[in-house]
Amino acid sequence: MAATLQHCSFLLITTFTWMFILIIGKPPIVAGTFQPSQWTLAHATFYGDESASATMGGACGYGNLLINGYGKDTAALSSTLFNNGYACGTCYQIRCVQSSACYSNVPYTTVTATNLCPPNWAQASDNGGWCNPPRTHFDMSKPAFMKIAQWQAGIIPVMYRRVPCVRSGGIRFSFQGNGYWLLVYVMNVGGGGDIANMWVKGSGTGWISMSHNWGASYQAFATLGGQALSFKVTSYTTKETIIAWNVAPTNWGVGLTYSSNVNFI
Predict the structure, then answer these.
(1) How far apart are CA 195 and CA 209, in angstroms?
(2) Which of 46, 76, 52, 78 is nearest to 65 (CA)?
(3) DSSP string, 31-63
(4) CA 204 distance to own-chain centroid
(5) Does a cis peptide bond (omega within 30 degrees of 0) precede residue 134?
(6) CA–CA separation, 36 vs 80, rounded Å?
(7) Can you say whether the dihedral through the CA atoms of 164, 169, 171, 176 is positive or negative?
(8) Residue 245 gets which letter from DSSP?
(9) Three-state DSSP class for 106?
(10) Which residue has the higher pLDDT, 240 or 9?
């Protein structure tokens, strides 16, 4: 009898919980969905000028950031954060703190990691070698820096946190290589913004594992010409895997970028 009452109580509580969720409109967190991290202290500088032209290209391999959808609000990460390129595409909210240079009316700005801020061992970590390990540091584009602080400050303490990357459209795949080697730059990744593993499938092959080259690029040593190509992508942060079927047609070519209709959230 007691066991039956306990079971009924559990069912009532469970039913009430789901009714409460439906009423307030907040469904449970879906597995694989990226959630913001805690705020953490770091420092930030900037590079380039107001045009952000110095930020184009970069270690992640995104090329022209304006054309490829990343805009001017970007940052180069110290190697501690860059994680050998696995942090490419990740998104951060950054707010200026503990400095008279901070704009008090700006809560934060959001940037995408598109570059590496390399160590400078010729300078002390607290005097010029801002990106020396183990420091966590953001070398922001000047337009992004100017949204949270007066640029004349040079360096400011900041609080930062990882946030979901909000992207329009699906993941994009930019091809390089030759007939025997396919190099793919993965762009416009939503959710965690990062990639852990990737596979390619030709219309005449099974899934072929691609190795991490550098930044946001993955490679496969295979003959894939004349085949439609699909890609399987796993998020570094959430471990979620999605498949982009038939992204590139049979007459795909290097130097071209192909868009899918799937993305992480």
Answers:
(1) 13
(2) 52
(3) TT-------EEEEEEEES-TT-GGGSSTTTT--
(4) 31
(5) yes
(6) 19
(7) negative
(8) E
(9) coil
(10) 240
Residue whose pair of structure tokens reads 């050998």 in the numeric block: 84
**pLDDT-derived band at 2, boundaries 50, 70, 90:** very low
Is 41 in contact with 110 (CB distance < 8 Å)?
no
Q: What is the pTM of this model?
A: 0.85
Q: What angle do CA 21, 23, 29 make, to 5 degrees?
A: 25
Structure tokens at 183: 């190099």
Residue 104, SS3 per DSSP: coil
CATH of domain 40-163: 2.40.40.10
pLDDT digits (tens, 9 = 90+) for 126-176: 999 999 999 999 999 999 999 999 999 999 999 999 999 999 999 999 999
* DSSP output for 186-201: EE---BT---SEEEEE
> Under CATH, domain 172-259 is a member of which superfamily?
Expansin, cellulose-binding-like domain (2.60.40.760)
In angstroms, the CA 8 to CA 5 distance is: 5
Q: Can you give the C-alpha Rg of the chain in angstroms?
A: 22
- Per the CB < 8 A criterion, the answer to whether 202 and 227 are in contact is yes
- Lowest mean pLDDT of 23-37, 115-129, 216-230, 232-246, name the range: 23-37
Q: CATH 2.60.40.760 in the chain: give the residue spans.
A: 172-259
Q: Which two tokens stand for residue 258?
A: 């192909």
